[in-house]
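Audit log entry. Action: structure prediction of a protein-small molecule complex. Ligand: PBG. The ligand was supplied as SMILES and no pocket hint was given, so placement is left entirely to the predictor. Protonation state taken as written. Sequence taken verbatim from the request; no trimming, no tag removal. Recorded inputs:
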Amino acid sequence: MEERRVIRVGSRESRLAVEQTMLLLRKIEEYHPELQFELVTMKTTGDMILDRSLDKVGGKGLFVKELDKALRGGQIDFSVHSLKDMPMEQPEGMPIVALSRRGEPRDVLVYPRGGKRRRPEDGRPFRIGTSSERRRLQLKKLFPEAEFLLIRGNVLTRLKKLDEGGYDAIVLAAAGLIRLGLEERIDAYLEPAQVIPAAGQAVLAVQGRSGEDYSYLDCINDEDAWQTAGAERSFVKKLNGGCSSPIAAYAEKKHGQLCLQGLFFDEETGRHSVGSIEGRSEEAEKLGENLADALRLEAAAGA
Ligand SMILES: NCc1[nH]cc(CCC(=O)O)c1CC(=O)O
């Protein structure tokens, strides 16, 4: 029997990261039985800092740095990430080489297991757990009376903290729960018109090394994901390059057109602006930039 070519694949070690990576690998294996994948998991800086909002300690890069090092050093052949955790620009020589078809893009509310959603009459404010400024800013409008509390840790840790009574609800990405087989924990979907998701939410990204042949990834690579996530990420990039201010972006294709919704919060004026733009899919990046310019002006002017 011929030896199968071994490909080493890097992933964060959280259960969600591993589930997502395996999902992708199983798909590739269907098309390429001649390949053998070996999973290499790592703890990242972002997984180790649990007491602060990550916005404050250096942002998105924290979840990918260790894996980048292994990729650069050749210990792994590619790594798999949630696109929304990736910086807007890839390090030299380590581009994104494939994007998966987007999963369920919405954020959701999860209530404590067994406990009914607490009625507001009993006095204390409804406590919503999230560590994302993007989510807090948008949920404040839906739940003006709520109190927002920081929650950190991976998805399973957050669910545990919720069930132990620390919160009346938490906000998570539907995609993560679904991929963990926990869809039944979803109590309410938040429509993008109410809560715009994070750029790249529910898309998986494969990061590789320049010059390597990744043609075996064609089977999972999704053109729509490149266009929609491309518009979302160019919007974010134009506004802050991935720093701390809350930004949301969600694009979808409708009748061949690309429709991008965005939210921008201006730290200087304390105002935020929300808007959308529509155009040709081929101009995804331009659309992102144009919406960014428009929303920046609006937030600055306080229209
Ligand atoms: N920031 C953590 C993170 N990164 C990706 C997902 C879920 C999957 C996805 O959105 O692609 C999650 C959990 C969450 O936000 O609830």
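Audit: result stored. Residues 49-54 have pLDDT under 50 and may be disordered. Residues 82, 84-85, 155, 172-173, 175-176, 201-202 surround PBG (CB under 6 Å).
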